[in-house]
Amino acid sequence: MNPERWTMNNRGVRNVDFGMKTPNSPSPTPLPKGERVWVRGMTLIEIILVMAIVGILAAVLIPKFDFAITSRTSVDGAAYMIASDIRYAQDFAMANRISKSVIFTSGSSVYTFNPASNMDSSGRLPSGVTVGNNFTISFNSLGEPIVGGSGSVTVSGGGQTKTIGVVNYTGKVNIS
To answer: Are the beta carbons of 100 and 115 closer than 8 angstroms?
Structure first.
């Protein structure tokens, strides 16, 4: 090794640390054969491997966390589905000039239509969501609620609750 290359200047800092040249410094000498200079840093392959490991860990661990968003989304979805099916029953009654009912049973995750039709939805609530009270809503051929007007049904799951109400006379559906 070149001893002049590693000498300290008058402030205790090596000139080679900053790549500085002083007017009297010798020109750089090539490294002896067989000696290597190791540059610190990461190669592209190392970065890709680290990213792959982080991706695998994320894919395995994230589904194990139960986020409150999931239960809120399920209850919201169930409330909108029920509201839509109540509106469907009202429209069906008016279009076919018959009475149509939607029947909800407390503690159940399924509700039914009466009379049943092949156009009715499945009436299945999302997983973990149940009906909170017994409620039946029936519409006449004019779309007026004849049973269950001004009543409501609740759905709950994961600590979240939504209430689906039906306005008397008009059959308008509200979610709160």
So the answer is: yes
What is the C-alpha separation between 124 and 167, in angstroms, rounded? 24
52-83 pLDDT, tens digit per residue, is 999 999 888 877 776 655 577 889 999 999 99
Cα-based distances in Å from 12 to 9, 137, 141: 6, 89, 97
Q: How many CB atoms lie within 10 A of CB 59?
A: 9
Q: Which residue has the tokens 């209430």?
A: 163
Instruction: Write out the DSSP string of 49-102.
Output: HHHHHHHHHHHHHGGGS--HHHHHHHHHHHHHHHHHHHHHHHHHHHHHTS-EEE
Domain that holds residue 164: 69-175
Whole-prediction pTM = 0.61
Evaluate whether residue 47 is within a structural domain: no
Tally of structural domains, the chain = 1
- Give 152's contacts (C-beta < 8 A, 6+ positions apart): 135, 163, 164, 165, 166
Q: Tell me, what CATH number does 113's domain have?
A: 3.55.40.10
Q: What is the pLDDT of residues 33-55, one digit of tens each?
A: 767 666 667 788 999 999 999 99
